[in-house]
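Narrative summary of target 7.
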Amino acid sequence: MKFWRAPVRESNRIVDPIKRAKNHTSRLINMQLGKLSSITRQASLDFPALRRMHAFEREVVVLTLGQGTYEKHIQKLRKVYAMLHNTGKQYERECQELRTKQEAVDCGLRCVEELRKIVDVNAGTLREAANMAKVLRGLPHVDLDKPIFAFVGAPNVGMLEFFS
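Modeled conformation, tokenized:
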């Protein structure tokens, strides 16, 4: 251990308390956005576009969910993501223009409250998307590279006449 070295002061420490509060609030807003909007964004990106699916998969999705339901749910999910992201960034820009430490803290609290309201208002949309994902996960997986054939009718058709 070298005792003659003085501890190095952090160079990234912000001395001005107002700038420090603004920075802290911006990081708080970004953390909340990271939790909320990234989840909705990733969920909306995990659903492939219907036109990019194989014809068989497309028909299974349409027959399972109904015509237009799949696209409608994905659009709603993307709108929720956009609302969360735009609200967070708007409050972050607003926070950078404030002049006092208390205003910066209040701005961060207002942002978190607004994000919570958006999630509460759109909770139905998020539940519908989760239910849609659950239904689609329950469908059987078919390897589309292998040929598909199926028996039509029950396997025991005509067995009574055969044995009598």
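The radius of gyration is 27 Å.
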